[in-house]
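Lab notebook page, bench 4
Experiment: in silico fold of construct C2
Operator: M.H.
Input chain length: 119 residues
Purpose: comparison with the prior construct
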Amino acid sequence: MANVRSYFSGNFLKAEECKGGEIVEILTEGELEEIQTPDGKTKSVLNYNVAVNGQEKKWTPNQTNGNILISAFGDDDAKWVGKKFKVTLAKISVFGKVKNSIVAEPLAETAAPTPIQKP
């Protein structure tokens, strides 16, 4: 039987399910969703279908991960499809509570080349 943890975790990739070092592949462009924050405000987020450990999950990057992915892959998320990153775990503040979170570490072989600036 497969690892039963995956049957109880829902469809979202969560830090609690990761050990760190997992390789994640982005499968789709982001899908916009409006969510309610704990303080009652409405917030727009982008959800991506990703593959990790042979499973397809949804992943909602936070602002930090969004900036990391933009720096590595560019600001057109259609070009992120097929790109990969390694999971690093870090403690960050989320809605005022410190918890483990996924930090994306783009893999060099899938990142866009850095443009060479000529003098």
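Observations: Residues 14-110 form a domain with the OB fold (Dihydrolipoamide Acetyltransferase, E2P) fold (CATH 2.40.50). The first helix runs from residue 5 to 8.
Next step: discuss at group meeting.
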